[in-house]
Amino acid sequence: MERYFGTYQTFRTVSKKDAAVLMGSNTLVGDRYRINLTMDEGVHRAWLINKFNETIGYFDDGFSRELSLFTAEGLELVGILSFVAFTETPEPGEYWGQAAVIGYSPHYAEEFNRFIDGVCGLIGKGIRPKLALNGPAVDEIINSNGTWLPSEREPLPEKQRGMALLKTRRGFIDGLVEAGRTGNKGCYILSWAFLLALVAAIIIGLKSCGVF
Q: What is the rounded average pLDDT for all residues in the chain?
C-alpha cells in the first residue's frame, strides 16, 4: 500500500448559489476538508465537505476515480482549501478553486496529521508547499514525527483574462473567525465589533457624501 499521495487539484461548484458557502466565513483558506466519494450512474464523484458539513465543490470524474482507487487501497484522504477564484466565461461566470489533496496510510496517522496541520498553516499564509513528494521526502515526514515540511513551493496558476483570485490566504478577520471557532470568545466578540465598526464607518461616510 502507498504511504502517501499529495497534489493540488481544481474543484468546481455546482452553481453560483452553492458558491455562497465557498465565499463565506465557514470556508477559510487553509481549512481542512473531508472528501466524500460517491458513485452516480457509474460516474465517480469526489466532494469537498467543510467542517460544518457543507458541500463546497467537487472534483472532475478522472480525479474522483483516482481518489476512489486510493481509498480502496486503504489511504485516508484530506482536502485543504488553497484558493478561490471566479471566471467570467462561460457566462454567467463560474466560482472555482484549488484544494491540496493528501492521502496517507492510517498506519502513520499521527505523523501525517501533524504534517497536514503544518501544511494547513502554510497555505493559510498564502504559501503553497510542494506536495508531490518522493520516497525520501515521505521518510522525512515519518522520521520527523510530522514536523518536516517541504521547502519547495507550488506557484498559483497564471491569471487569465476574466479571472479573479478571490481568496488566496487568511486575512485579519479570518484569524479572528478561526479564534472564535476554537472557543476564544474575546476574539469572536472583537471580530463582530470590528465588522460593526466598519459598517458604521461606511454609513457615516455615505451620509457625509449626501447619499442619504
A: 86
pLDDT in tens, 39-48: 988 899 999 9
Of 55, 72, 43, 74, the C-alpha closest to 17 is 55
pLDDT digits (tens, 9 = 90+) for 150-184: 999 999 998 888 899 999 998 856 555 555 555 55
Q: DSSP assignment, residue 106?
A: G
Indicate whether this model's pTM tops 0.90: no
In this structure, of 10-24, 43-57, 61-75, 129-143, the range with the lowest mean pLDDT score is 10-24
User: How far apart (Å, rounded) are the C-alpha atoms in residues 169 and 125?
Assistant: 5
Angle, helices 185-208/172-181, rounded to nearest 10 degrees? 140
Quote the CA–CA distance of 167 and 69 in Å, as a whole number.
Answer: 31
Q: Is 200's pLDDT higher than 80?
A: no
CA-based nearest residue to 146, from 46, 4, 20, 32: 4
Angle at 193 between CA 187 and CA 197, to 5 degrees: 145
Instruction: Tell me the domain boundaries of the chain.
Output: 4-169, 171-212
> 55 is written with which cell numbers?
458541500
Give the N- to C-terminal CA distance of the chain in Å, as an integer.
66
Please state, in angstroms and rounded to a whole number, the distance separating the CA atoms of residues 77 and 138.
Answer: 16
Residue 86 makes CB contacts below 8 A (sequence gap 6+) with: 93, 94, 95, 96, 163, 164, 166
